[in-house]
Amino acid sequence: MSTATETREFQTEARELLRLMVHSIYSNKDIFLRELISNASDALDKLRLEAYRDKDLEVDQAGLRIELEADAQARTLTVRDNGIGMTRDEVVGLIGTIAKSGTAEYLRKLKEAQNTQDAELIGQFGVGFYSSFMVADKVTLTTRRAGADAGVRWESAGEGTYTIEDAPDAPRGTEVRLHLKPVDAEDHLYDYSEPAKIKEIVKRYSDFITWPIQLDGETVNSRKALWARSRDDVGEEEYAEFYRHISHDWTDPLETIRLQAEGTFEYQALLFIPARAPLDLFMRDAKAGVQLYVKRVFIMDDCDALMPEYLRFVKGVVDAADLSLNVSREILQQDRQIQLIRRRLVKKVLATVKTMLAEEPDKYATFWGQFARPMKEGLLADQENQAQILEICSFASTHDAERPTTLADYASRMKDGQEHIYYLTGETRAAMENSPHMEAFRAKGFEVLLLDDPIDGMWVEAVPEFGGKPFQSIAKGQVDLDSEEEKRAAQGREEEFAGLLAWLTETLGEQVKQVRLSSRLTTSAACIVSDSHDLTPTLEKIYRASGQDLPPIKRILELNPGHPLVAGLRTAQAEGRGDAEAAELLYSLALLAEGGELADPARFVKLVTSRLEQGL
To answer: What contacts 571, CB < 8 A, 6 or more positions away?
Structure first.
């Protein structure tokens, strides 16, 4: 590797981020130090883990620490660690570019934040290093990777380019030296070479860091792991700052969960439910949010063995006392103790949300508004806790146009003799409320759940019942809402319309599997329903979009015998004037009424136009 100084340009996104930082869009510039200390802490964690995993890596782990060095005369502040360090390629890759998912969204939020008081977005995508340029007009980074013979020095004034060169004498670890801007109190730019100011920032943001943070040889953080401290000894702001540290979120958590197990298998857990969904919640490479420690030693980020995928938004730390320190992801998947921890954590999270629902409805509403979809994933993925998840779900219903309902509340309002929980799936509430399938239920006062999330069509097919009451789609199978008197009258109509039903079944044989009279219609002429065990159109569309090859699914056309159009068709057919085009139009109108798509829209328009011409 050449020792000559090389000048490079930042990647476009990194250059834009630098521009925003240099122009100081944040009122609270103190957080730059939080970010640099967090990076140093991560580097120390990684060194210890690497030393456990790689027995050939001979590193001295004595005296691992973070050092802060202030020089008031030179106007510099240095953050130094003796952690894992970086190679030349890592420096270029991690600092010269932003190779993180969600970069475009991050920059958009940064630009929006220019008009806000203090959005505190820094660190959300691991780009906290750039925050240095809020307070420094030049940054020099010197680093050497553990096990490497030489280091590298990086320097930039934040103006679109940086220089990089070899640093043969660099010690192991990373040193970031900030050449501080002049103090400007009006712009909230304080004297960051002042020891009292440095201590204030460390105490506020980084007191929980487990590594010693030293200033002039004095350790200025308490170092005790937050999850190991007494509940009475930790304030809410400390919990909130720790959450921001591990999650890279900029808001306070919605809920904090403490858990401690003692006895034959000991562990401590500190979990957080965020107040808002992370941007990568539904990205393919979304990561779990729980860190694993063993005996206070960091083992891994994003430990998916500790939390099921549907709870991937939960952030936190689990510190186990009895696991091997060289545990791997593969071993974790099979480890009985980890499985026991996972079961306990899941039940604790679900119990916390249940308590939230009962005691803090506004907070629960925030939770459900952010995390309804992943929780519904749990109804499909977590059979063991399916009943508990159902208890904390809420859904729109015809009972209240504004407030969703829990299934327990729905059950409490069920009519005497009602044996099913009725629901309808669709794309919007308005479409479902105006659906012909709803007419008899509305007329007879039966409450119907309105499920407009695509995943609703999947879980509701997989979950058999709630509280002993089976779920029943009002757009599938037969509907039994009639009184005994209405049922006797219906039997007479079956005989009266038998000829029309048989003729329509034959005429529309390519589109439907059966034509029958309906007990669910009061004002519409017809509707289309699925057979009891067939896929709904919504679910069929999802499966086809995912590439599954399904056979054609024919559905059932139901007629309202009291509608003038149906009565007219019966009379015409009985007199030998069966009108195939009218039958086709009736089917097409029923399909459109439920939000379906016509196979041949041009033909439908042609038929409607022809009928209008005949009527003029």
So the answer is: none
- The answer to whether 106 touches 278, Cβ cutoff 8 Å, is no
- In angstroms, how far is CA 209 from the centroid of its own chain? 28
What are the C-alpha distances in Å from 133 to residues 130, 178, 193?
6, 8, 15
Check: CB of residue 591 under 8 Å from CB of residue 598.
yes
Rounded to whole angstroms, how far apart are CA atoms 118 and 513?
62
Tokens of 230: 């007494």
Nearest Cα neighbor of 130 from 251, 39, 64 is 39
Residues 6+ apart with CB under 8 A from 234: 226
Bridging pattern class, strands 315-320 and 421-425: unpaired
- 82-93 pLDDT tens trace: 999 999 999 988
Contacts 24+ apart (CB under 8 A), 279-287: 279/102, 279/105, 279/106, 279/124, 280/101, 280/102, 281/312, 281/313, 281/374, 282/373, 283/101, 283/102, 285/101, 286/312, 287/312
**Burial label, 275 (beta-carbon count in 10 A; 0-12, 13-18, 19+):** middle
Angle, helices 498-507 vs 564-574, to 10°: value is: 90
Amino acid at 256: T
What gap in Å lies between CA 103 and CA 417, rounded to an integer?
56
For residues 340 and 128, what is the distance between their CA atoms, to the nearest angstrom? Answer: 36
CA distance 542 to 348: 33
Positive or negative, the Cα torsion across 560, 561, 567, 571? positive
* 422 Cβ contact list (under 8 Å, min separation 6): 441, 446, 447, 448, 449, 472, 473, 474
Q: What is the pLDDT of residue 107?
A: 60
φ, ψ (nearest 5 deg) of residue 180: -70, 145
Cα–Cα dist 217/66, whole Å? 11
Phi, psi of 189 (to 5 degrees): -105, 100
Task: For the chain, give the percent of residues with pLDDT over 70.
Answer: 92
Cα distance between residue 597 and residue 483, in whole Å? 35
Residue in 384, 377, 373 with CA at minimum distance from that of residue 346: 384
Residue 181, both tokens:
């801007």
Q: Do 574 and 415 meet the contact criterion of CB atoms below 8 Å apart?
A: no
- Give the residue from 174, 317, 155, 322 showing the smallest Cα distance to 243: 317
In terms of residues, how long is the chain? 616
CA–CA distance, 437 with 528 (Å, rounded to integer): 8
pTM, full prediction: 0.73
Mind listing the pLDDT tens digit for each residue in 521-537?
999 999 999 998 888 77
Token pair for residue 205? 């943001």
d(CA 131, CA 32): 5
